Amino acid sequence: MIYTHLTRDERYQIAIFAKANFNQSEIAKMMDRDKSSISRELRRNRGLRGYRPKQANDKAQERRLACANSPRAADSTWAVVEEKLAEAWSLEQISGHLEASHQPGVSFESLYQYIYADKRVGGTLHKTLRCQKTRKKRSSGRERRGTISHQVSIELRPDIVLERARFGDWEADLVIGAGQKQALVTINERVSRYSIIFHVPFKTAQAVGDALITLLKPFAHCVHTLTTDNG
Questions:
Q1: The sheet that has 195-200: what strands, in order across it?
Q2: What is the annotated signal peptide range for this record (predicted)?
Q3: H or E element that contains 175
């Protein structure tokens, strides 16, 4: 079946059928749509007040615009990506599946750009990323804003980081501007090569620390290590 975007009218149909307590399989059959399309639509565009067709359509349009700069891939390919993410597949598994099934491949960077764009418009794809990291409670109430704990020296990085065998190992660097005051904080994920840049007006430990926290916050559940040049 060739994947096509749901229309505004179809979203109103979904809302009517859902309100009438039809299940997803029944809705899909009545609309001549694949069940996965209905499931994905309800999962991605349901708000705090339930599924509302106008808001769902606006949200979908915003997401499409936000993803406009992502490398081109067929809509059917992105549909497969979202389906597998919902099934708790890792991005490594998804990439391998696309290649094995002769579908247009999508790089790690493309996948994360797509997921991050989805997050910016209120999507939940980022919550499906399969990264195992346990958060520890703070041992004291002292102010820690602007500090990055557990920084790892390049010499002490575990072998798995050097092998680029998982997503979540980041490297940070500082590019000093003219006058030695302003700077650009950059972070790079080793597997996907995904990079983000943040401008800081003052080259202080506080400003740089805050920048790193801001940059990594969207990926908080996918940070295994952070290696800095400690400059």
A1: 195-200, 183-189, 169-176, 225-228
A2: none
A3: strand 169-176
